Amino acid sequence: MPEFSTFIGLSIGMVLTMVSCSPAPPPPEMQTPTSVSNPTSEDHPDFSIAGKVQEIESGEIIILSPENQNIRLRIPDQSRIWDGIGWVAEIPIEIGDDVVATGDWEENKLVFVVRNLYINIVYLRGTADEVDKENLRFTLDDPRQGKNAVIVNALTEVYLTNDNRQGAFQDLQILPKEGEYVEVIGRKLKDGTILSVNITIP
Fold this sequence. Notes:
CATH 2.40.50.320, five-stranded mixed beta barrel
């Protein structure tokens, strides 16, 4: 089965790799550059950082890193939230959300300037079950992350690998079949359900 990043681009694919496959990121002074998004030059590559939102201010948030460090993130107007996918990016950030950001540090190393930001991003792989065509939802049983209720939005992007087709759900009107292996990239909501942004179906 093709790698999910083949379909949705290098940026979000690299972030998901960092979130789901890598250990917690090191403290700011020890962070290493990543290739998550296109750097402005070879001398200024992007850095990555993750944490839980503690405070929300105008144009900035403060997160608590896995190393229990409070880090201030500045989010300028040109920052790309959820790769610019508007209907997902418009969901407000709340205290307690998990965020992953790429960008660079200001010269004083006290503020991290965000280039790309992902809120409550999850990547699930497993078997579809309890497919509800009327309410546009299904359960995904991921061997590592357990069972998760997945919601399908009209604008959820669906990828059919066997047919080499893709499009918004509102156009394709295709849900996974029960017992079928699927991959889901989505945003976890407060009630624990996963709002699917991308669904890959064989």
